[in-house]
Every structure is written in structure tokens, then in C-alpha cells.
Amino acid sequence: MDVLQRIDLFCDAVPRTWATVTDDGPLRLFSRNGPGWPLYARPIPGGGPVTAADVARMRARQRALRVPEAFEWVPAAAPSMTDVASRAGLSVQVCPLLVLEGEPAAAELPVGCTARLLGPADGDLQSAASAALAVTANAFGAAPPGGMNERALAALRADLAAGTIARLLVTGPDGPVAAGSAQRSGDVVELTGIATDARHRGKGIAAAVTAVLASAARAAGAALVFLAAGDDGASRVYRRTGFTKVGECAIAQS
Predict the structure, then answer these.
(1) 146: pLDDT strictly greater than 70
(2) What is the pLDDT of residues 19-64, one digit of tens each?
(3) How far apart are CA 79 and CA 98, in angstroms?
(4) Nearest to 13 by CA among 249, 192, 185, 191
(5) Is residue 65 classed as helix, strand or coil in its secondary structure?
(6) Residues 35/159, Cβ–Cβ less than 8 Å
(7) Of 16, 171, 191, 217, which sits 20 to 30 A from 162 (CA to CA)?
(8) 68-100 pLDDT, tens per residue?
(9) Strand order, beta sheet including 91-100
(10) Residue 109, φ and ψ in degrees, nearest 5
């Protein structure tokens, strides 16, 4: 199995921890069961070509459930999806997919900044996780996915303890400045949500966040560590820590 097939299967497997799965033709919808960032629909691995009618039905289902009309896929694994999504009037973004080769290269944080991997027993987990969510939302121009209430905190503790996810927070002299996450299925780990506050960009912080998360993934036994870069500029940051482009992923929204 090649690396893009493994990534495609990971993307089909990892949301199941937090979602209800509904299949409709060659498309599969993941509907989040609790708090967190909204999920998406995607082509079923090996499910055959996707048509405009398939996309229209899924979008209607998403509207009925009041979830975003969002799709994600690996074009190499679902070659029909990109053209169909574009013709359906969805806004399609194609992003580089990068895989870690060997061990990550070390990257230093600026003086005065410290990086911390959150743990399930941390006494301040609620406030630290909320700060990480806020940094990520601000960096990407999105609204935070709800407050860190007791239910969300309990779910986070369980996921951290199980090693299903990782959360990292970077703090500077004036408070939180960056964050990053990882999610795991089997021996595959995806780094996600690597974000730096706009006032602190250009200082190498994103590379340091990437290196810490990637090192933690390798230490936990991950054989494949990958991420999707927002654009070629972001890819250059990840290449400095040992990642190599292997293909593309795509995201479509209404």
C-alpha cells in the first residue's frame, strides 16, 4: 500500500472516534457527537466515482443536520471528486500533503517562549486547552468550537490518556502565542492546527511546534507522520523540520 492510500484510510478512520458515520452512495458523512471542530463528508475508500448527484444529496443531508457543507479528500484516491466539487459550485482548495522523513530536525523557540504538551492529569488542563483553542481560532480567523465545559474537558482527558490526540501550547512573556495538535489512528499520526498569533509570526515558532509534535509522535511509535500545509509558503516551514511533499489533499466548502 502506498503512502497516499495509507493517508486516505487514516482520514476515513480517525473521525470515527468522535462521530456518527452515515454513508450515502460513494460518500461518507462524519457528524460530530460532542464538542469540537465540525467534521465533513468524504469519498468512501474504494467506493467508486463520485457524481454531481452524489454531492447534491450529501449537501442536502448536511443542511438538514445543520452542519457545514464541507468535504475533504485525497485526489489521488478519489480522482473524480475534485472536478465534481468544482462543478457543484463549491469552493475547492488543494493543499500540499507532506510526510516526515526520518526524525524531525530540531527547531528552537525564541527566547522567552516555552512549549508544553498538555497531559490528562494537568491541573490547569481546562484553561490551557481553552487558550490553545483560542490561539488556533484567532490564527485561522475562525470562531472557537464552543467553551471547554466539563463534558468537553472529560473527553479531552480521555483522548489525551489514550494517545488518540495530542495538544501543544506555546507561551511567551505576555501569554499564549502558538498551538498545535496531533491525532492518531494505529501507527499513523496527522499534525493539525499548527497556528501562531499574527504578532509573533516569522520567528520560527511554527517550525518548533512542528518539531515537538513530530518528535512526540515518533516517540510514541508512529511509523507515518504527515500533515497538510495551507500553501507552498507553509510547506517551506515544514520542509525545514524534515517533511517532504508526497501529494495533495483537497477541501471544499459552500
Answers:
(1) no
(2) 999 999 999 999 999 878 889 999 999 999 999 999 999 999 999 9
(3) 19
(4) 185
(5) helix
(6) no
(7) 171
(8) 999 999 999 999 999 999 999 999 999 999 999
(9) 19-24, 27-32, 41-43, 70-73, 243-253, 91-100, 224-228, 188-196, 175-185, 165-172, 114-117
(10) -80, 155
